[in-house]
Request: fold
Amino acid sequence: MMVIKALILKDFYEYRNNPVKVGSTFLLMTIIPILLFNFFGLSEFYLKDMRKFEELIIIIYIALIYTETTLFQTRRAINCGIFEKFFIHSQIKRIDILISKYLTNLIISILALIFILFSNAIISIFIEEAIYFSIRVSFIFQLILGCGIGTCLAFICSIVIHDEKNIAIYLFVLVSFYFGYYKLLEFLKIPNGIIEYIGLGCITCLLCFCVLVLFRQNQFIRK
Reply:
């Protein structure tokens, strides 16, 4: 547990040392859902469950914050030889790296969600027809699982792809996954509920396994 705590603190210290880039990514990716719903009329393009569509948009844009917290950070760590030092250190296990990054992103996701709700509440004061976001218990489960999916996909893209193209691939895979998954549930007429979360949980576990397998492959090490 101490190792995971140390890795989390390391991440936040790194973010503190780069406040402009991390802060701008955070603000941009959390304000976009509000703009899309309240100003750009995106609400006309939806799944049959409009509420589900709104939640998907929020989760996707929160997960895009991971481009900086995980995608680019992991790429820099690989290029600078930091991961080699982690793996050589007998006290740091590969699963610790994955868990610490997940917890870091989960904290950031919660902060982003609070920011979205707070900002939307302010907008609703001035706009009568503003979209009203409220938190459902089901959405909390989606956010927790979505954080795992977004984190693992960011790890996979940063390890497999060695240049700036990884952000385009990450964005494409993330958006395609979510809308494809829920369109599939809609097509199969599977109601949102326990089956939805079991499916997301299984996908999260599979992606975690893929990340750990990639961690054990030496070919991505650059130093």
